[in-house]
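pasting for ref. prot 1 ->
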Amino acid sequence: MGKDKIRRFEENATFRCVVQPAFEEVFGQNHRLKGHWKSDFFGNDNPVVLELGCGRGEYTVALAERFPDRNFIGVDVKGARLWRGAKTATENGMRNVAFLRTRIEFIGSCFAPDEVDEIWITFPDPQLRKNRVKKRLTAPLFLERYARFLRADGSIHLKTDSRHLHEYTKAVVERNGLPVEACCADIYGTGFADELLSIKTTYEKRFLAEGLPITYLKFSPGERTVFEAPEFAPDEAL
């Protein structure tokens, strides 16, 4: 492990905004903050918004800057990456930002029913290989995890450069009859991008430089708790 990574891991341990559960704290049992993020961590009753697979935490921090009356939690397993967002939040004294270092598979151990108001998924790994489809963050098994803690009227935002993931998620949404609030295959080319969608992460800037269109989909799981996979594979149809 490089010295820079070691330094970041050590610094993460000093940041109030970073929560790093041990494996045994989230595997098969509930983390101490489950159901208590507002009272025990943020000290307020404001809405909670997650960014899953937050990477460097750029979107989490940018959203928190724009909405000081909401609580934002970036979730990622890569501590050396989320260090950047945690350091920015710490240096700027941002009390409405947290970073949770854990696997998305364990997310249900960290949040209680109706504890989360919105979910952002920004530029996740599209998992293009056929044997990895179930690992997509918008696959039915993951949606079932989110539905356990996302409010019934809560929204899921997917922003990605991957046309495959965008089309796949649309197919999942259609298969399950989920309410769609917004859908765009090229947010910049069509002028669809507003202030929030125009927030650009390091990865997004790279994708735009390569000429890749950025897609967006906003939908809600509603009252559903079980989700079905689409009958066809959009990846194969493209």
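and prot 2 ->
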Amino acid sequence: MIGFRRTPQKRHRDEAEKPFWISFSDLMTALMALFLVAMAVALLNVTQGLRKMDDGRLSRDNAVSSCLHDIRQITRQAEYAGVKLRGQTLELGTLAEFPRDSNGLEAQQAGFLRRFVPEMLHIARTPACENWLKRFVLEGYASPEGSYLYNLNLSLERSQRVLCVLLDAKAPNAPSLADRKAIRELFFVGGSSFNSAILNQPEKSRRVELRLEFKALRKTCSPETPECEPDEVHPIPWDDDFKCPVTSRS
């Protein structure tokens, strides 16, 4: 029997030249491409977020400007002569000035407040104001005569006196029930001693001003940011006690 040798099979020469795993340079190229895609997506999100903030800020500024414009138009009416809007503060002039060491208002002044404030509330209910108006602040002031704490208390009493005038349902031309409820929810009182006294004019320092406060542009809230809480308005329970607790000084 003639023997023969099995011819060894030849390996393909190109097996070593075509490995299964990609080369290191190809891996780095792929990672770089993924990084660029991720960066592009992140930049797009940031850009969209900034655009939304700019749009929201512009919308708020336009609404506040419209609200203040409507109020300024009311102050130009002849029956409200003397009332001026400076920035976001309504200076009521002689219509809300008090005698020395007094928290009392004359019948003419009380009648003016009962006509003027419902006009402000009507504007506050318009879409331009309703979404952004936070509250009205009644700020009372005192002239430099007297001690600091005495005048601070007197200025607070003056602010409270205005609220008593507005919430008196039995007074002539009293605001409607809806307006009185809105006053209780939107009006806050504040007082200042002679910090904002008008130089050399003590009679003009004994006054009350009405300041408008608007909501700030809030950032987007999410469960991950519990410190970001929306503004919530809690209705004040209504009662029929219209007795003014401010004791008259005059």
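Confidence is low (pLDDT under 50) at residues 225-229.
The longest helix spans residues 24-75.
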